[in-house]
Amino acid sequence: MTSVADLMAYDEVLDRFDPVLGLEVHTELNTQTKMFCGCTTTFGAEQNTQTCPICLGLPGALPVVNAVGIESAIRIGLALNCEIAQWCRFARKNYFYPDMPKNFQTSQYDEPIAFNGWLDVLLDDGSVFRVEIERAHMEEDTGKSLHVGGSAGRIHGAEYSLLDYNRAGVPLIEIVTKPITGTGERAPEVARAYVSALRDLLRALNVSDVRMDQGSLRCDANVSLMTKDATEFGTRTETKNVNSLRSVERAVRFEMCRQGAILATGGSILQETRHYEEVSQSTRSGRIKETAEDYRYFPEPDLVPIAPSREWVEQLRATLPELPWERNNRLKADWNLSDEEFRDLVNAGALELIVATVDAGAPADEARSWWVAYLTQQANTRGVELAELPITPARLARVIVLIAEGKLTTTLARQVVDGVLAGEGEPDEIIAARGLAVVSDDSALLAAVDEALAEQPDIAEKIRSGKVAAAGAIVGAVMKKTKGQADAKRVRELILERCAEQ
């Protein structure tokens, strides 16, 4: 494995080379059944319980294409501004993996269903970078190997391996970019932003749950370097199955620094697949990268070609939802935010949380205030991402509604949120258990007001003489007596009424 000492400084890489990227993103579709058979696709089912002769590749079993899978592929292509093929077909991609029960993958080769598109990507500073899309094609996923006894689930050092074929045949769409050039120092950022934008798009289309942590969205990052005076791309490596946005960015940066160090000493880059290691934030060698000829593609004889009519394509285009960039422009206008303010929400990972909180019944201003202020502070204290906090938008919305109804003060609400973060249950349960409800009984409040006025007669006299600003001291005393459970506005009203009577 390459060590940090073997890397070239990032700034030096940029001085001497231009990076070229190619990103291949695989997304599992959320169809109820597999791509070519009727087996279910539920994640996390008991091993090898979602299989049949077709997805196990048994002799004589014939596949049938999943119609919803084709619809999803077309909708993805349309959303990526692609051309949709008038005629295309499946091919057999031949290679051996122990978790490929058929010893070939049913995929598409030179005739993808969608091609020649683009996706505009918003970068951290608000600028937009257009990523050209080469193709989006349909295929099936492989099974899963479980290596027992090794470190970090890897085959190296494992005592034995088990095979789970539940995932074999799950519908996949592979989205492949054209070579991405002109990124310079922002290459890692562009890679992360592209995968993030693609994830948001697929989520909006409701074609996948895009759970990178569960493998339903995976990125293969191709990286090469070319000298400043070169006219041809350098040799690329492909870092496989990177499963988080942060890791995509780090993997690209690491490969740039690793390749730069090799090229600077006169070495050559081996065209190979590599694997990203989360712990060391580095890549390690996998296997020599095959070419298309190695896969011996040929048309799949058991499946008929697909010829989507133009009428059907236009019908599917009409089903496209409000796309993420369209929604963002609308939200920015609705919330009266500047470009910079909106970008800060996106960069903080707060946008989707705010939207979900609003959808759960909270006003946008209140939802935004909670997520970007108190909850961001809590996330920073815990050292986690905002979305990783153990509070749902629905629970926060409930707290905000209780404040609006006068059943919680802001101070009490923070205690309720703290209880939710501590795993104590739902907001209403925490209020009952901790006794945090606002004291709304005027008689109880008046008793506390009278006691506070009696304890501070000089302040009471100032209020009676017209210096109403002095009421703040009495309000504070009453809040202390009620352990913060009084409505400060109502307390102030009662103080002024009491002083006016005397």
Topology summary:
Layout: H1 10-16, E1 17-28, H2 67-79, E2 83-84, E3 91-94, E4 104-107, E5 114-122, E6 128-140, E7 144-148, E8 160-164, E9 171-177, H3 187-205, E10 217-227, E11 237-242, H4 245-264, E12 272-277, E13 282-288, E14 298-299, H5 310-317, H6 324-334, H7 339-347, H8 351-359, H9 364-382, H10 393-404, H11 410-421, H12 427-434, H13 442-455, H14 457-464, H15 471-481, H16 488-501
Parallel strand pairs: 11-12
Antiparallel strand pairs: 1-9, 1-10, 2-5, 3-4, 3-14, 5-6, 6-9, 7-8, 10-11, 12-13
Mean pLDDT: 89
Count of individual domains: 3
Question: Treating each run of at least 4 consecutive H or I residues as one helix, how many helices?
Answer: 16
Largest sheet strand order: 2-5-6-9-1-10-11-12-13
Unreliable residue runs: none
Q: What string gives the helices and strands in order?
A: HEHEEEEEEEEHEEHEEEHHHHHHHHHHHH
Biggest sheet statistics:
9 strands, mixed
The secondary-structure class comes to alpha+beta
Q: Strand share of the residues?
A: 15-25%
- Computed Rg: 30 Å
| Percentage of residues in helical conformation | 25-40%
Question: How far apart lie the N and C ends?
Answer: 83 Å
Q: Total number of β-strand segments? A: 14
Instruction: Give the oligomeric state of the chains in this entry, treating copies of one chain as homo and distinct chains as hetero.
Output: single chain
